[in-house]
């Protein structure tokens, strides 16, 4: 059970994780966060009752935050992860689990910037964590024990589904669930645009698209839901939906989606290489 957790950097994703944790049994007194600006630190402290330190005011904020922490969440951009790891290394307890939510930062890159044997976990969360409907894929480092991995699960389980995956699957996870919400939003944009082409006003078009996508997603969360079965349930033979699906197939929509996912995965791999070269 987590007794103390540090969030180093607390942007929108970090705040979503934080809010989920505090919605479980974790006390605000168990949380410390570091951010750059004093105003942001004051905002987090006021909103959640946690301890929040601003680097602009306390240069050693990150090192102070990790002292005695069971888990440390690295919430800065990928390019800043290695430097942050080196900064906190002298203060980390050997048993503290370091969890990175930065895309494309490998376990070996984390480990190389931390003390030898430090427990590390690579996480790929997605933005629906903000509404407690996220999915998070975790990959644990070789020195991370099952108990330490369970602590990483505890960080995310109140905000969504948590899966354990081998690290070589992380780029695929990033392409599907990490970037996936943007694909859904893009589809909703296109659906609303199509509605406007029929002559519907903008507000009506957006409501139709938004609620249709949200309602369909909710149906997919029901036990045993299968997207193909649900699709066939709406597609009456010779009907309007069947005509639309046939048009999607003729335009190669499935292939377009696959190509987008491949491009996202390739970019994730490229970022990992760029970080190694840097």
Task: List the keywords.
ProC C-terminal domain-like fold; elongated; NADP; 8 strands; Rossmann fold; 53% helix; 8-stranded mixed sheet; 12 helices; alpha/beta; 2 domains; Pyrroline-COOH_reductase; 14% strand; 278 residues
Structure, briefly:
It comes from Arthrobacter terrae. This protein is of the alpha/beta class and 278 residues long.
How are the SSEs ordered, and which strands pair?
Elements: E1 5-8, H1 12-22, E2 31-35, H2 38-48, E3 51-54, H3 61-66, E4 71-74, H4 78-88, E5 97-100, H5 107-112, E6 120-124, E7 134-140, H6 146-156, E8 160-164, H7 170-178, H8 180-197, H9 202-220, H10 227-234, H11 240-250, H12 253-277
Parallel strand pairs: 1-2, 1-4, 2-3, 4-5, 5-6, 7-8
Antiparallel strand pairs: 6-7
Helix pairs in contact: 7-12, 8-9
Describe this structure in words.
This protein is of the alpha/beta class and about 280 residues long. The chain has twelve helices and eight strands. It has an eight-stranded mixed beta sheet with strand order 3-2-1-4-5-6-7-8, sandwiched between helices. Strand 7, helix 6 (about 145-155) and strand 8 (about 160-165) form a beta-alpha-beta unit. The longest helix is centred in the last third of the chain and has 25 residues, at about 255-275.
């Amino acid at each position: 059970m987590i007794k103390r957790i540090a969030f180093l950097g607390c942007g929108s994703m970090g705040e979503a994780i934080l809010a989920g944790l505090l919605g479980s049994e974790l006390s605000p007194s168990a949380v410390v966060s570091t951010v750059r600006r004093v105003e942001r630190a004051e905002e987090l402290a006021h909103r959640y009752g946690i301890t929040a330190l601003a680097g602009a005011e306390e240069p050693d904020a990150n090192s102070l935050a990790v002292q005695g922490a069971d888990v440390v969440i690295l919430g800065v951009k990928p390019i800043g992860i290695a430097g942050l790891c080196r900064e906190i290394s002298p203060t980390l307890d050997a048993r503290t689990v370091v969890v990175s939510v930065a895309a494309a930062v490998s376990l070996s890159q984390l480990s190389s910037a931390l003390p030898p044997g430090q427990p590390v976990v690579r996480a790929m969360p997605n933005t629906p964590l903000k509404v407690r409907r996220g999915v998070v894929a975790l990959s644990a480092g070789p020195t991370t024990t099952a108990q330490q991995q369970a602590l990483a699960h505890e960080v995310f389980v109140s905000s969504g589904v948590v899966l354990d995956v081998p690290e070589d699957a992380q780029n695929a996870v990033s392409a599907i669930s990490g970037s996936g919400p943007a694909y859904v939003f893009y589809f909703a944009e296109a659906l609303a645009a199509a509605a406007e082409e029929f002559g519907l006003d903008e507000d009506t078009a957006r409501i139709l698209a938004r609620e249709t996508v949200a309602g369909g997603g909710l149906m997919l969360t029901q036990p045993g839901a299968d997207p193909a079965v649900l699709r066939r349930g709406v597609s009456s033979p010779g009907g309007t939906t069947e005509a639309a699906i046939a048009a999607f197939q003729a335009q190669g929509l499935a292939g377009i989606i696959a190509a987008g996912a491949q491009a996202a995965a390739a970019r994730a791999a490229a970022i990992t290489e760029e970080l190694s070269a840097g």
